Amino acid sequence: MTPNGSILVADDDAAIRTVLNQALSRVGHQVRVTSNAATLWRWVAAGEGDLVITDVVMPDENAFDLLPRIRKSRPDLPIIVMSAQNTFMTAIRASEAGAYEYLPKPFDLTELLGIVGRALSEPKKRPGDQRAADTPESMPLIGRSPAMQDIYRMLARMMQTDLTVMISGESGTGKELVARALHEFGRRRNGPFVAINMAAIPRDLIESELFGHEKGAFTGAQQRSYGRFEQAEGGTLFLDEIGDMPMEAQTRLLRVLQQGEYTTVGGRTPIRTDVRIVAATNKDLRVLINQGLFREDLFYRLNVVPLRLPPLRERAEDIPDLVRHFFGQAEQEGLHAKRISRGGLEAMMRYPWPGNVRELENLVRRLAALYPQDEISEEVITNELRDARTLEMAPSRESLPDELPLGQAVEQYLQRHFKSFGTGLPPAGLYHRILSEVEYPLILAALAATQGNQIRAAELLGVNRNTLRKKIRELGVDVYRASKPGV
Question: Is the entire prediction scored with pTM above 0.70?
Answer without folding.
Answer: no
